[in-house]
């Protein structure tokens, strides 16, 4: 933010902004300040309200807010209290006048009907294309970002990345205008809601819905990965659920990068939504397609439980949990989720990228087979291998904890092996002692003493008693060692069993 934007605007500056008579640099500074300062924005709206066109636009905004319930927000917020923020955007007057009294204005060849969402990068408008007689969604970069070269490049990159992916489960791009005063891209308009909105309204989803949504999102990611793209921001807000149709659309590739584009992958840069990003993203490391798989696992977790897997009061706390701890087991929160589905999600959420699935296509196939089993449990079996996966232990475990866990198991094995060797040695010694005792009462060939001449005195069994005493001591040693080990924190000892 510029130094200018830290101070409040005076009335004359606001009036000049309305008249479009400010120098370009000052206009950009004032616009940026208005997006952050509620007092100046209110003053600006009061001045703007004297214009007849502004009153009409405000009235239409109010009407559109009441009509957009259940419509697509394309990953952006659509709350009614955002109207004031929309007003600040419209104050820049980026819409052209329109002859259609039912529209807010024109943007290129599109008649803008209403505002359907707003986010950090811009706003989404519902437009109508007369030439093709169809409604479209127009995503416009926010005025305060349009002056940033980096923001413009990122916006154009979103359009290029999405346009390169042709798949029924990826939101298509009709056209893009990156050179406009406010860059915009045009997408199909679909009546839908985001997965985040569904979770906010409904909470945890049914197992069939979890599998269906997860499968289709995986197919969309697979298509993106085939183009060498990593989404980097897979989250419920970027997964759209089409109304009255069981179709899922993956949207907002604004953080997508070409895997081989070194100029856009810089160590130390964190991109993504904290609650759903991967450990490698949290560390600011380079990522590949398996980072999206971790985020997909976090989405599956949220659909099963109604909340993200990693939560904390601060962004730093969330990032730390992502790097160092495992989430609470799904079935502890929602026992209705089958154990095999928990295993799928937890495998996706593995800290080590090598322990995740190899591709989104593999995940899609697995979820498809699992959905078929849920729909027809008597005729379709679960996919093979689900019960064979070694899950990350259920308690909080980072890489250091996992190493300690493995060392404890190794230590326990060594102790049991040593105890077994001691037991065998004692048993061998006992047998040899008995053999020696028996040899003392054997027939003596030199003296001619026969067994019948030996008094019927009971044979001593002290060697056997000694062996039993030693074995009891050894058993006690083993039990003591096992108790000592078990009293320590041993996460994952009681791992889940295969169904």
Describe the structure.
The protein is of the alpha+beta class. The protein has four domains: 1-50; 52-188, Phosphorylase Kinase, domain 1; 192-392, Transferase(Phosphotransferase) domain 1 (Transferase(Phosphotransferase), domain 1), CATH 1.10.510; 399-439 and 459-499. It has helices at 11-18, 24-36, 38-48, 52-67, 83-90, 143-146, 149-163, 195-202, 207-226, 279-282, 289-305, 315-324, 330-333, 339-348, 360-375, 399-440, 462-487, and strands at 105-107, 110-118, 122-129, 134-141, 175-177, 184-188, 192-194, 229-230, 239-242, 248-250, 257-258. Helix 9 packs antiparallel against helix 11 (289-305) and helix 16 packs antiparallel against helix 17 (462-487). The radius of gyration is 35 Å and the shape is elongated. The two termini are 57 Å apart.
């Amino acid at each position: 933010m510029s130094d200018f934007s830290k101070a409040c605007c005076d009335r004359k500056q606001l009036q000049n902004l309305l008249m479009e008579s400010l120098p370009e640099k000052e206009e950009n500074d004032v616009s940026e300040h208005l997006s952050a300062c509620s007092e100046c924005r209110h003053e600006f709206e009061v001045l703007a309200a004297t214009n007849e066109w502004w009153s009409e636009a405000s009235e239409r905004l109010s009407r559109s807010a009441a009509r957009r319930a259940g419509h697509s927000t394309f990953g952006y917020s659509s709350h009614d209290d955002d109207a004031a923020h929309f007003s600040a955007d419209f104050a820049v007057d980026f819409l052209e006048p329109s002859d259609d009294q039912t529209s807010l204005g024109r943007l290129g060849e599109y008649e803008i009907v209403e505002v359907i969402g707003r986010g950090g990068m811009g706003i989404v408008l519902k437009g109508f294309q007369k030439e093709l007689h169809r409604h479209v969604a127009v995503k416009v970069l926010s005025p305060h970002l349009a002056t940033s070269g980096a923001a413009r490049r990122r916006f154009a990159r979103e359009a290029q990345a999405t346009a390169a992916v042709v798949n029924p489960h990826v939101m298509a791009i009709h056209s893009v205008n990156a050179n406009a005063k406010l860059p915009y891209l045009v997408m199909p308009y679909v009546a839908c809601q985001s997965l985040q909105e569904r979770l906010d309204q409904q909470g945890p989803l049914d197992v069939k819905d979890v599998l269906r949504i997860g499968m289709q999102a995986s197919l969309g990611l697979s298509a993106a990965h085939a183009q060498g793209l990593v989404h980097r921001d897979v989250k419920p807000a970027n997964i759209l659920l089409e109304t009255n149709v069981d179709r899922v659309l993956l949207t907002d590739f604004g953080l997508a990068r070409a895997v081989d584009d070194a100029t856009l992958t810089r160590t130390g840069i964190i991109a993504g939504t904290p609650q759903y990003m991967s450990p490698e993203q949290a560390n600011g490391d380079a990522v590949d397609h398996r980072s999206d798989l971790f985020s997909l696992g976090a989405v599956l977790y949220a659909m099963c439980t109604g909340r993200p897997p990693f939560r904390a009061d601060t962004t730093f706390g969330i990032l730390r949990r992502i790097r160092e701890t495992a989430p609470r087991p799904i079935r502890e929160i929602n026992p209705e989720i089958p154990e095999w589905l928990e295993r799928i999600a937890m495998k996706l959420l593995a800290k080590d990228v090598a322990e995740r699935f190899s591709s989104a296509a593999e995940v899609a196939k697995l979820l498809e087979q699992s959905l078929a089993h849920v729909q027809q449990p008597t005729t379709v079996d679960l996919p093979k291998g689900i019960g064979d996966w070694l899950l990350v232990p259920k308690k909080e475990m980072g890489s250091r904890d996992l190493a300690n866990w493995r060392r404890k198991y190794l230590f326990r094995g060594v102790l049991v092996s040593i105890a077994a060797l001691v037991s065998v040695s004692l048993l061998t010694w006992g047998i040899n002692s008995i053999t020696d005792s028996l040899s003392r009462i054997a027939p003596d060939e030199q003296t001619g003493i026969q067994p019948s001449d030996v008094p019927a005195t009971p044979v001593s069994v002290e060697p056997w008693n000694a062996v039993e005493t030693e074995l009891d001591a050894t058993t006690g040693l083993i039990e003591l060692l096992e108790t000592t080990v078990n009293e320590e924190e041993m996460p994952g000892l009681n791992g889940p069993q295969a169904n």
